[in-house]
Every structure is written in structure tokens, then in C-alpha cells.
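name: query_chain
kind: protein
chains: 1
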Amino acid sequence: MFESAIFYAFGAVLLLSGIRVITARNPVHGALFLVLAFFTAAGLWLLLRAEFLAIALVVVYVGAVMVLFLFVVMMLDINLERVREGFWRNLPLALVVGIIMVAEMVTVLWNRYWGASAVTPERYSNTKTLGLILYTDYAYAFEIAAVILLVAIIAAIALTLRRRKDTRAQDPAAQIRVRREERVRLVAMPVEKE
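structure:
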């Protein structure tokens, strides 16, 4: 009973944060609501006893993809009026996709409660099984995905690294190359008498 209440509370938060992702006027606010949706989905994974998937969702999506997305959103100068026009133009297609996703979720839940139930052994660990499959059968795909994420992080850093003309910075190489004659200027002044 308590677990069901937590499930429905997480589901409600996930639904509301998902709605706020697509209705937020500010893209940064939409990204933050997406982070909330990811954390709530990770909580649902924990309720389903899929601990590895919950941690992977937080680490990969919140820790890497959302940081990259926020870099892009803050780096681009987004015209919000054009974004709002596209929202109304694409609303019919979005409604069709949303109805299909709801139908899929109803089908999955219907099968869980009124269909065949899966029996899991007592000492079963989904993290161990997923790790064995991931690092044996899909080792090359896993390494390729890691390289793609590394390239994306390097590209995000390279795109956001800009030199501004109005900032002052020290150049240690120029400081070392300087000679004493260039630094110190002796000025001859008459001695003042009181």
C-alpha cells in the first residue's frame, strides 16, 4: 500500500514536470524541469528494484546530457517568439505522439496487473546481469558510446571557450621574456631643499 502511494506520487510529479518541460517559456526552466523528471523517473526505477538503471539515468542524463544541453541553451541566442510559433504549429503531431505513448503505457500496465507475472529468483541481481551483458556482448558498443560522449564534452568546451577582448589576463610567457631595461625607467630629478 505504501509502495503504491509512493509510485503514484512519483508518477504525478513526473507527469507535471513533463508538462512543464514543454510549456515553460524559458528554455533553462524547461531544462531544470527535465532534470526533475529524470530524478523522478530514477525514483520509479528504484521502486521497480532496478537500481543500476536508476543510477545510470541520473549519472548519464542528469550529469552529462543535461549539462551539455544547458551549455547549448545558454550559448545560443534563442528567439522565444519563434519557438512559441513552432509550438502551436507542431501541436497536432505532438498530441498524436502523446496519445500513442499513453496507449503503450496502458498496455504495459494492463499486462503487469492482469497478464502473466514474471517470477524472479530470490538472489537475483539485475545489476550483475546487466553488467555481464553490457561488458561481454555489447562491449564495443559501450566503448563507442563512451567515445561519442567524450567527443561531445570536448566539443561543448571548445564551443563555449571564447576569448573576450575586454578582459585582462596575465601572460606568464611574456612576463618571463621581459628585460630589466624594459621594466624599470630611471628618472633624474633635482633634490628638493626645505
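note: The chain is about 75% helix and 0% strand.
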